[in-house]
Amino acid sequence: MNSEKQAASDPQLCRNLQFLFEPKGVAVVGASPKPSLAKSILNNIVSSGFDGNLAGVNPNYSIVDDVDCYRCISDVPFQVDLAILCVRAENILPILEECELKSVRAAQIISSGFAEIDSNEGRVRQQKILHWAKRATTTIAIGPNSFGVINMHRPMIAVGESSIAKIAAGGVSGVFQSGQMAAVVHPLIGRGVGIGKIATTGNEVSVTTAEVVNYFAVDPQTEVIISYSEGIKNPESFAAACARARKGGKPIIMLRVGAHPEARRGIGRHTATQAVNNYQRELKFLEELGVITVGSVEDLIETVMAFKASGRPRGNRVAFVSFSGGMGNIMADSILSTSGLKLASFSGRLCKRLADVLPNFANSFNPLDLSAQSAFDAGVLSDCMQVLGQSGEFDILLWGKDLPISIDDESPVGLMLKELVLQHPEIVVIPVSQMNGLCRDSEGGSPPMFAGRPLLQGTGVAVRALGKVIDWHRSI
Asked: Is the Cβ–Cβ distance between 147 and 110 less than 8 Å?
């Protein structure tokens, strides 16, 4: 069966997650004025500007933080599309059964205390939820042991984080088995990338990563899919979802953990994922599916940035230009060590033309060190870019910077790079800073940009990310 037929016939992939991301009515079960995940989720839904119906559910209160509160799900006077369950683990099953009777469309189970606690009691609880999920006809369950859901195009922020910054809507959507991974939205936003939808799946008793990826694959508001995974459940379903995303031109960037026994032991106590012993085999499986795998949160973030910064280059030949010989040497080593990239070797003719326009203290080979004195000579910079642009000897120009701050459009460097972009649109120009960690300009507070695109940060991580992007484009 091919991937398209698999996606169309798979019962799970056919389930509609719309009510998870696009609910018209939400109930937070366990809502309380006391500090808790339930309180944070309720407050975040309100402060995000959610315009649907909202209720708390708790028999001890009639109102919680200005939101009407009801004794049970059955008493909520509107159609509940999404119920967010923040109660003790032993109380989850009867509430799920009530959700089914109430025709609740989706139930996000925040509560922990299931198979991840590695006890017979926890495993039995999870097994009972699994049996319920297989019987349920109107309600789908997400979790347990999860963190919530976000849809910035709704908008709706329903996660248990107490310090949510202003989140801009955009095209990056994610599915995470770990709730804390939702914090990845902050550095992305700080660098000018908007967020679409975030789902946290926890133990994945019913809804799996495959199902969420499949939803994002056809979601018109999603352009890039990111994921944190502790093991792929239902590999055939996942393969079909990946094929659908690939057909839609949407890269999937996944942080798959579990390379070492110690980490696999932690996975067992985190989400109780049973696929943890298949790490190496699964990495090969992901590679065959065209999933971009990364080994750290930093690489995940930078790979998203590289997609945003690079567009689709015509090739993999890279030229590096800066005012620093040291950074040039670092970048040359990184580029030459990275699969997917090629450090362009300037021809003798190009080297001679560069030598004719550059001062004698600069070099004329790749990586190109213009030396700090050239930074103040607009004529030298302009002539250099003209020669480089006309050469046809590279596809990507990485412009080296010290710190991750925006390039002033009216500075000599800004004018020179804008001229190169205008005259040679076939060349992808990407500023990259030697240092990372600063996400905003010190003056205006806006994300660092050049020509409307984000900058890359860090030498090694930026080059690795760019290599993965080039490999992905060449494979489709």
From this structure: yes
Section 161-189 average pLDDT: 87
pLDDT tens-digit map of 184-206: 988 998 888 999 999 999 999 99
Closest CA to 430 of 465, 400, 473: 400
Could you tell me which of 86, 84, 47, 77 has the C-alpha nearest to residue 65? 47
Q: Most distant CA pair in the chain: distance in Å?
A: 82
Contact criterion met (CB below 8 Å) for 367 and 320:
yes
Q: Would you state the structure tokens that stand for residue 133, as one six-digit string?
A: 């999920």
> pLDDT at residue 221 above 60?
yes
**What is the C-alpha separation between 417 and 431, in angstroms, rounded?**
10
Task: Please say if the pLDDT value at position 5 is more than 70.
Answer: no
Contact 276, 268 (CB under 8 A): yes
The residue assigned the tokens 């991301």 is 21
C-alpha closest to that of 201 among 106, 278, 280, 101: 106
The C-alpha atoms of residue 347 and residue 364 are separated, in whole angstroms, by: 10
For 162, the 3-state DSSP assignment is coil
Which of the four pLDDT bands, split at 50, 70 and 90, describes residue 125?
very high
Which value, in Å, is the radius of gyration of the alpha carbons in the chain?
Answer: 25
In this structure, what DSSP letter does residue 451 have? T
Instruction: State the Cα–Cα distance between residues 76 and 70, nearest whole angstrom.
Output: 6
Q: Which helix (H) or strand (E) holds 318?
A: strand 317-322
Please check the confidence at residue 276 and state whether its pLDDT lies above 60. Answer: no
Task: Using alpha carbons, select from 117, 123, 113 the residue that is nearest to residue 91.
Answer: 113
Measured from the Cβ of residue 68, the count of other Cβ atoms closer than 10 Å reads: 15
pLDDT score of 274: 65
DSSP state, residue 340:
T
Strands 195-200 and 148-151: antiparallel
- How far apart, in whole angstroms, are the C-alpha atoms of residue 397 and residue 423? 14
CA 291 and chain centroid, separation: 13
For the entire predicted model, the pTM comes to 0.93
- What is the per-residue DSSP string for 51-88? -SEEEEE-TT-SEETTEEEESSGGG-SS--SEEEE-S-
- Bridge partners (DSSP) listed for residue 174: 198, 226
Mean of pLDDT values over 116-125: 91
**With 80 as the cut, is the pLDDT of residue 389 above it?**
yes
